[in-house]
Write a structure and sequence with these properties.
The chain is mainly alpha-helical and 120 residues long. It is built from four helices and no strands. It has helices at residues 9-31, 46-56, 69-79, 93-119.
Amino acid sequence: MERQRFQTVENLERMLVITAFLTVRLLQLRERLDAPIDAPETVLSKDEWKVLWLSTEHNHPLPKMPPSAHWAFYAIAKLGGFADTKCTGRPSWDTVWHGWFRLRERINGYQLSKSVFAEL
């Protein structure tokens, strides 16, 4: 929010309302991080986790069941540029935020292509 440098309070309020929904979704996913049994289906839709899997797990086939929330959180962070090494801790919120936007771009492309091919 601070980097946006809005000129009026109304513009700042609009941006806060828009980003509040995204923040809640990311917090929900982060909250489930330590429960590897939990599936991301409660936070990620079917299309979201499948596109995320295909974007990050290039050498593995798509699983039948959704992976854990722990996997989903780190996969989103990898899209944002997180390098998962032994020395790194948990991804920063900035990295997760950027990963989420990259995931959204890919989902939008998937949905667009799905609607185009449905018309053919």
